[in-house]
Amino acid sequence: SLVVLFGATAGAYGAKLGSDERELILLVWQVVDLHSKKVGTLHKSLVKADNLDLSDQCREVSGLTPEGLGKAEPLDRVLQQFSQLVSSDLKVLGRSSYTLCSDGQLLIRQVLHPETSKKNFLLSDCFYSFYDLRKEFHTCYPSSAAVKDQTIKTMAEYLGLGTDEADEDFGVWQVKTMVAIIFSMLSEGCNHVFTEPETVKYKYETGPCSKSETVDSETVIRARGLPWQSSDQDIARFFKGLNIAKGGVALCLNSQGRRNGEALVRFVNSEQRDLALERHKHHMGSRYIEVYKATGEEFLKIAGGTSNEVAQFLSKENQVIIRMRGLPFTATQEDVLGFLGPECPVTGGKEGLLFVKYPDGRPTGDAFVLFSCEEYAQNALKKHKEILGKRYIELFRSTAAEVQQVVLNRYMSTPLIPTLPTPIIPVIPPPYTIATGSIRDCVRLRGLPYTAGIDDILEFMGDATGDIKPHGVHMVLNQQGRPSGDAFIQMKSADKAFMVAQKCHKKMMKDRYVEVFQCSGEEMNFVLMGGTLNRSGLSPPPCKLPCLSPPAYAAFQTAAVIPAEAAALYQPQALLPTTRTPQASAAAPPAVTYYPAQAAQLYMNYTAYYPSPPVSPTTVGYIAAPPGAVAAAATATHTPILPQPGALVRMQGLPYNTGMKEILSFFQGYQYAPDDYNGLIQLSDQARSVLQAPKEWVCL
């Protein structure tokens, strides 16, 4: 038997069903006995959605109203009634089993599975197998339109059936017409047999991927904006209803081995990938996720591996993988097993542990652990930030692809798939700079909606838009290059800035109120470096405090822009220059910040109206360049260069509360730059911004 099923949501209809995350509001179904060609009772059930705001298209097509839906039952109860009524109708027809049949894939894959997953209740087994009437129709009538162009109406027209929808209620006509189409396919001229139903995977299967595999680029997507703590199972749940290939979720890591909020996902075929692209900007919790096309080559770079060590570790399939970070470098397998304890036994004992080491054999402080079930993994995660030795240990869910990335690539200097263009040369500042000084002719907007653009800001400021300086709107981006909710605007005078702050403070933009503070260019720079600015005053950033490094973050200094053609000639040679000349110590100029070229590429002109670049550097590093290039840039702009006396050593793995006193005490007995605390220069990696407490220092 078949159960012919039709549904509608409160939003888009037809080919876009489910693409807007709107909830189900209507289900209509009827049982069809394929042998006796009898039908059961036709049932129509309204569904009460959490949000009863219907789209204009929904109102027009369905004729439903919020008032009528408000009296309906919620989805979980409607699905219970569905199961009971189907069982009753089957009993009347003398049948016991059935398979669903729907008009295309969208109702099952894009509506029912995602919505029930978000509402945390399970669908019955019947929703994991169904017939796609469009595909069955095209198989039966090969000369008909392509599957993607089929609709209930076009199929009915092809068979010469009645297509006047006005005679029946919305949903009822669709189900009756689908039943008539099925009976036509069963007639003597066709004798169609329903044999190969579509399937929905019950759960995501983990597993390794070899670099020798062939991955079709038409099956891979890139998901951006993921919460940093999300696992492969969380991503699979986001794509619930779509079939992900075994081991098809690969979380992307940055150059320090930390997750960067992106993942590559491989589906079983291009049809599933195309449905996944329709979930662009759907939500995972409170965050929207961007979904784009990717290539098989990119997937293999992230998920592929050939190491025997990794292959042996991942040979035990369907295991839950936990990543441990921050282990003491002297930690042994026995130490880790003792830390986890008997309540979370590791699969295979010591064989279920994989320590990550640098190419020279030194431990990185990371390890991966296998657990045979979710219960043991949950017990292990409860030990997050517990102490082993003298260090607290972080525990996260992980994936096979993450194991391969971390172990095989040993924290490469660049990510396998850069989220931004590859670094080229030292600083290439944008042509527009933020003004400095104490004149309070700027305003800061805080709490902007993340979807807000320049047009929204101009509309928000109203008549004051005419008082903005050319190139005076600066959108602040976060470390992933997306809006952070802040913006700085340079006004033509301090009076104009004061008026805007008074008029627009806590004014609404979309569904959020926005705070507006008057500030100066100097204060603006302070905020961008981690200071706090509000109506109570200004608190300096960490790098301006006396106990930390001196003010060496001249974040917006003017320098010559090196053309891209010339930039291509210069390649980074090392993290830091390897030699220093003693002669330079007599008059060492203040330090200048070098930005990786990613930032220069990221902060491009944001709008044609006020084309200033966003101005929140996400990382501070030092990339060496040919001495001639640096000297030429400095000569052209009179910009001071990083001081050259003595030699540099890098300290890594410092406690987070380390101060200058502890560092100097550590080097007791060695001569460092006397009476010159400029010799301590704070670094940060791409996973931490300069706004956080220092983890690494460089000593002159």
TrEMBL record:
Record's GO cellular component terms: nucleus
InterPro entries the UniProt entry points to: ESRP (IPR050666), Nucleotide-bd_a/b_plait_sf (IPR012677), RBD_domain_sf (IPR035979), RNaseH-like_sf (IPR012337), RNaseH_sf (IPR036397), RRM_dom (IPR000504)
Record GO terms (molecular function): RNA binding
The entry's keywords: mRNA processing, mRNA splicing, Nucleus, Repeat, RNA-binding
CDD domains: RRM2_ESRP2 (cd12740), RRM3_ESRP1_ESRP2 (cd12742)
Domain RRM: 320-400
GO terms classed as biological process: mRNA processing; RNA splicing
Entry's localization field: Nucleus
Family designation: Belongs to the ESRP family.
Entry-linked PANTHER family: HETEROGENEOUS NUCLEAR RIBONUCLEOPROTEIN-RELATED
Protein name stated in the entry: Epithelial splicing regulatory protein 2
Native source species: Falcunculus frontatus (Eastern shriketit)
